[in-house]
Amino acid sequence: MTLAKIVSELGRFLIQFLVSTGKVSIFAGQALSYIFRPPFYLREIISNVFNIGYLSIPVVGLTATFTGAALALQIYSGGSRFNATEVVPQIVAIGMVRELGPVLVGLMIAARVTSSIAAELATMKVTEQLDALITLSTNPMKYLVMPRVLAGIITGPILVLVADSLGVFGGFLVSTQSLGFNPNNYILSTVHFLTAADILSSLVKGASFGLIATLMGCYYGLNSNHGAQGVGSATKSSVQAAAVLILAINFLLTALLFTA
Amino acid sequence: MIHFKNIKKSFDNNHVLRDVNLEVARGQSMAIIGGSGTGKSVLIKTVLGLIKPDSGIIIVDGIDVNKSTHDQFLERFGMLFQGGALFDSLPVWKNVAFRLQRGSQKRSKDEAREISIKKLRRVGLGPEIADKYPAELSGGMQKRVSLARAIATDPEIIFFDEPTTGLDPIMSSVINELIREIVVELGVTAMTITHDMTSVMAIADQVAMLHDGKIQWCGSRSKLKDSGNSYVNQFIHGTAKGPIKTLR
User: Fold this and answer.
1) Chain centroid to CA B38
2) Interface pTM, i.e. ipTM
């Protein structure tokens, strides 16, 4: 491959990336602006809060509990190498609340919610349901996208609180049942160590990841190509984009909130 | 009256509509015939704003479609989509009453349900299917529900996109009769996209033949067989020989 061709390919990739970023940004701006403009479709919002939030609790809860438990075992094992096993409660708490809780929630809802939204909206597009909505004087951005995005922003922090609590509980369970920690001391260490800023940052991440997960599902769903392949491709791309964006934004938020 | 003036629409290098000029008089039932992929559906969608033409204007009752308030404008229309396009997540009655539950035509829930059941009856469906979901219905029933949705708010103009596609001959005949009855009963302006000649004979007052991005012939249904137009003759007789190129 010649140098000119490499430069040309890089240029094409960069242009494509910028175009996509622009399109997603405009889409996000439109979706967010509809949150403040009537009609509000309250029933749709409630239904999406239930689907995205409430129905995600089992998978988020189980994932967080097992991760918190595994984290406690790892910290105990690693800490024992330099006589620092007593830091298990603090590290589990900080690890779960600052990082793992939000990221696990983000990735779980990317898997469960983003894929489902993208597949549903792409199928609606393929079967002309989106066109039908428009002919019935209903804007798909308002009726389909806004309620999902708002539900993501509302339920993200709630799911993160669930994940944080159950993650810490997983660590507590393993530490007190098999690592010999005193339950009261474990709880006190956790409570004393965590700050309001830790919890707040966790909630900010939750809202951001809820927004990204729902937005990617809606964007790829509404912009899917026709046919079964289009639906499959939209679903795959939405989950990939949501997962990568969640991890990238997590890094940026961590850098912004904890190192600035 | 719907007036298409010099409508052009291309998708990349595919020039679907090259220069369409057509008038559909108020209260008239117009069928647009033509082969698959000739742009019949695209033409209808340009009126509804689902597809924006590259050039040309569409005037409905003296108002330019592009200059009208979109939501208010759309309230005058009903549309029966080719595949029904019913909302999977809603029960049948909510599909039919969709427009009656929001916007300027909003009614109370009870009233909306009552109208929905009345419209379902009009298309030959009983109230027992009101709470079923579209996926639980046969293709013919879905078409009827879609027809009930199209007439739920007694629109002035109704578009029918391939109303009999995918249906058996008997069900096709039932749907054709229903459409004709409804068009006459409501006195609506109707545009039907089809390549089913039985539908054309049952539904249309006027017929327009779309081919190669242009209206090749337009006239009364009764003159269709004696049109003297080679495109129309080839199409209605379904022969491979003629000006319409076929792939074999």
Assistant:
1) 16
2) 0.88
